[in-house]
Each structure stands twice: as C-alpha cells, then as structure tokens.
Amino acid sequence: MSSLIDRPFAKMNGLGNEILVVDLRGSSARASAADAQALARRGETHFDQLMAIHDPKTPGTAAFMRILNADGSEVSACGNGTRCVAWGLMEEAGAREVMLETAAGLLECTAGEAPGQVTVDMGAPKFGWADIPLAEEFADTRAIELQLGPIEAPLIHSPSVVNVGNPHAIFWVDDLDVVDLRRAGPLLENHPLFPERANISLAKVTSKSAITLKVWERGAGLTLACGTAACAAAVSAARTRRTGRDVVVTLPGGPLRIVWREGDDHILMTGPAEFEHDGRLTAEMFSAAA
Ligand SMILES: N[C@@H](CCC[C@H](N)C(=O)O)C(=O)O
C-alpha cells in the first residue's frame, strides 16, 4: 500500500515537460520508485518528473524537494519541475521569491516580470570528468571522444559534457533531426562512459545568443523541454565560444532564457510554469492495472 494515498497533487508543466507535484508536507510519507512508476503510467497523473515536496529542513527554506524520473530513478536536479514547485509555493504564500532545498543544495527562485514566469538560480556548473561523472579521465570536457555505433558515428561526435546538478552530454549539430533520438537516445543515455547514465541533447547554435535543442532525458525519454539541458547547452556553448553567456534556448515546447552569470558562475534559468489540474492520490492510482 502506497504511503502517498490521499495526498494532494498538482499536475503542472514547464514548456510541456510534464511535472507532477505531490505535497507530502505535514506527513512522513515518502515517494518510492514503484509509486513513481505507477503514477507516471496513468493519464491523470502522467509525468516526466515527480516533484515530492516535504517539510523544510533548513530555516529560511519553503520546502525540501525530492525529484523522481518516470522510470522511478531519483535525481538531484530538474529545472522545469523546480519552476513549477516554486510557482505553486509563491502563489500559496503570496510571495515573489522562495528558497527550495534538495539533497544537492539550495535553489533561489524569483517570480519573473511576466505572469507565470519564474527565474531559478541553478548554481554553478561542474566540468571536471569525475564530477559529471565520466567512467574515464578526460582533461578537457569541452569535447570528448566516445565510441558510437555504426548508425550514429558518421553523424554526431565529440559532445561537450557538464554536470548542472545532473549529467548532460551535448552533441553540436546543424540539423536537430540528423539522428533519431528515440533510437539513439537510450543507447547514448546508457553509454559505458556515463556510469550514472546521462541526459542527451542535440544542439544547434543559430546565433551568438540563440540555441535550439532536442533532449532525450535520462529516466524519462524524449520530452518537450528540459530545463537542466537548456542550462547545460548554454554553458557549454559559451565555454566553447559558440555563444555569449546570455542566450535563449528554444526547445520543442518553447523558449527558456539562460544567463551564465559572470562573477559567481551561477546559471539563471527563466521560463514559465503552468498549472493543469489538481486532486488527491487514490489507492486505485497505484494498482497494477493501469
Ligand atoms: N526535465 C528536467 C530534468 C529531469 C532530470 C533528468 N531526467 C535526469 O535524470 O537527470 C529538467 O527540466 O531539468
């Protein structure tokens, strides 16, 4: 029997990235991998990421947040989901800023100028091979060599790799459809060079301040948008002098503005959070027959 039964949920999205926010504040309930897999399968609660919000652990924070992918794996960052949670908590408190906490640290979130827009300080990226992590040492992670299968090898190569709270590989392309991510995504996500798997993006730089992006997400598959992938692409593009540090990253679901701030190297992500519907989780939602 799931400990989540009867807990309130809100179905939201960030640029079409499907987010299920489950409110566990005031309870000792904890979302399991099996809970996530069951809820991800059902229409009403269908999601790419489940954001479980818990009572705050640190003074000054509004909530502690756990993040689960649709496959049940737990991760430490989700840009679109963070905007959704922040938007909900700001609405609840009538506030324009909120501090959230994850196992990986604090996330400062601010309401944007346009309604429904939220800016999240995603912290500083990590470029060291062991931090990403990679299975072998690379002195320079701006472009790494990795073995690809015979279909992809002639088409994509030398991704930039970075950890923005989670691991990302960015393949620079002229055509976002050059490979079928639905086929290549799972192979690349599980490449032996990525011991914790990786989120895989195809990125096209269209100007010094614009990138278009398609993402195969670790643990969720093809999604309409991925906030951390947009951050990963933006810092990788700036680091390789393809763009400046202030860019618009356009995903299939729409645009995010990413600023890689000079001085503290923090990444600021701005984009929308949209409420769809809410309800309470029922025992039936966790039953095997989805
Ligand atoms: N959709 C998210 C990323 C969620 C986590 C990712 N799939 C992972 O496993 O690292 C976003 O908006 O950042």
TrEMBL record:
SUPFAM superfamilies: Diaminopimelate epimerase-like
Pathway info: Amino-acid biosynthesis; L-lysine biosynthesis via DAP pathway; DL-2,6-diaminopimelate from LL-2,6-diaminopimelate: step 1/1
Catalytic activity as recorded in UniProt: (2S,6S)-2,6-diaminopimelate = meso-2,6-diaminopimelate
Catalytic site: 78, 78 (proton donor), 226 (proton acceptor)
Matching PROSITE patterns: DAP_EPIMERASE (PS01326)
GO molecular function terms noted in the UniProt entry: diaminopimelate epimerase activity
Intracellular or extracellular location(s): Cytoplasm
Site description Could be important to modulate the pK values of the two catalytic cysteine residues, residues in chain: 168, 217
Top enzyme class: isomerase
EC number: 5.1.1.7
UniProt cross-references to Pfam families, sorted A to Z: DAP_epimerase (PF01678)
List of residues binding substrate: 17, 49, 69, 79-80, 166, 199, 217-218, 227-228
Keywords: Amino-acid biosynthesis, Cytoplasm, Isomerase, Lysine biosynthesis
Binding partners and assembly: Homodimer.
Family listed: Belongs to the diaminopimelate epimerase family.
Function (record text): Catalyzes the stereoinversion of LL-2,6-diaminopimelate (L,L-DAP) to meso-diaminopimelate (meso-DAP), a precursor of L-lysine and an essential component of the bacterial peptidoglycan.
Protein name in the entry: Diaminopimelate epimerase
Organism: Chelatococcus sambhunathii
Biological classification of the source: Bacteria, Pseudomonadati, Pseudomonadota, Alphaproteobacteria, Hyphomicrobiales
